[in-house]
Amino acid sequence: MSDTEKNPSQAQGGGVDPKLLEILVCPVTREPLTYDRDANELISKAAGLAYPIREGVPIMLPEEARELDA
Amino acid sequence: MTRVTLIASKPQPPADDGPPQLFDRPLLRQRKDRAAREFRDYDFLYARVADDLLDRVESISRDFDTCLVIGGGGAVGRALKDRPQARAKIGKVIEADLSPKMAGLSEHPAVALDEEILPVREGSVDLVLSCLSLHWTNDLVGALIQINYALKPDGFFAGSVLGGSTLSELRASMSKAEEAADREPERRVSPFADTIDMAGLVSRAGFTMPVSDIDRVTARYGNSFVLMRDLRKMGETSVLTDRSRTPGTKSLFVTTAQAYSADYAHEDGKIPATFEIINFGGWAPHPDQPKPKRPGSATRRLADALGVEEQDAGDKAGR
Questions:
Q1: B75/B40 Cα distance (integer angstroms)
Q2: Which fold, B22-287?
């Protein structure tokens, strides 16, 4: 899990609710996710996928995820 | 009348060796995304189910820290605003939907997810409510198992799906119209789940103390065109993989409307449409939950407790 989740600043702008970060895992690998605040994405290293967050809503759909460069 | 059942007559090839794909979920997502913009004007069925789900939460004498809502386009969160008693029992509400746009309607933290690959950590939530979404899953038991897995021990799950006799009037009228036009009846209306033993499925998914019941809601419409428009606005039109690919002609829908009115219209000319709602629920297992005693372990006779005389039913007592 990301170590940024308790930072209050993420409640603003493109942030994501800390509780969501706490309960969500990668739908493909069921591994924990890392929150990349700059890119506003949830990263699954094991799956090599980055799930976008749009208007604070994580899109946990593999077909919507960006493939990470190996 | 041709009955449309859950079992497709043409078996679908399993996708990626998974269960047969009865429903086209990417299409469902598209339909829901499209419906999201005006959904709040057409969400009466979801609002009603949300209210019923909250009744069940209120009837439980414990509080829930984290609640995950699956489906309903934010309807449960909206219903909570008028339900202070239920609201007080729930700490954090998270609303989820297959459609990112439906999830975006939520007034709580929201996530777009597919309940067939539920991306929720094991034992991380206390309460799961599913509002009219699981009837579109290809593997209902699989989805229930994943919900069970997401719950903490002794967490509670309650859900509602549309059942088999939903829209029976529309299906019958459409079959009549297709027969009148000398056409093979096509699968134009989603079959929904047949009225199955939901408590049995909930139990198979590992929940304890499973329950289920059936509720019927009759909505009234001016005619079947209005009904079909409303179904589109709810994003509930058929997404069967085996659905008809030939668009219905205008005359087919006109004949359907005529048959519908002739067979079902009330005195004021309005037509009824039945929605069958199957409610179900259960608990994630916990060692402290009540368990049935081993057969034969009773120390007192039932007849004594009831104050009646025991009668021999002819059965042999078990070993």
A1: 8
A2: Rossmann fold (3.40.50)
ipTM of the complex: 0.84
Q: Say how far apart CA B147 and CA B205 lie, in whole Å.
A: 9
Write out pLDDT tens, residues A33-48: 999 999 999 999 999 9
Residues in chain B with CB shorter than 8 Å from the CB of A25 are 119-121
Per-domain residue ranges of chain A: 3-67
Taking only Cα atoms into account, the Rg of chain A, rounded to an integer number of angstroms, comes to 11
Instruction: Report the pLDDT value the prediction gives residue B178, as an integer from 0 to 100.
Output: 84
- Model confidence, pTM: 0.84
Q: Which positions 13-32 of A are in contact with B (Cβ < 8 Å)?
A: 16-17, 19-20, 22-28, 30, 32
What per-residue confidence (pLDDT) applies to B257?
A: 93
Question: Quick check: B42 pLDDT over 50?
Answer: yes
Report helix, strand or coil for B138: coil
Residue B175 near residue B17 (C-beta atoms within 8 A):
no
Element spanning B127, H or E: strand B125-131
Task: Please tell me the distance from the alpha carbon of residue B129 to that of residue B44, in angstroms, as a whole number.
Answer: 17
Where do the DSSP E strands lie in B18-104? Answer: 64-70, 90-97
Q: Identify the CATH class of A3-67.
A: mainly beta
- Chain B residues contacting A, CB < 8 Å? 26, 29, 66, 68, 92, 94, 98, 100, 103-104, 109-114, 117-121, 124-125, 150
Structural domain boundaries in chain B: 22-287
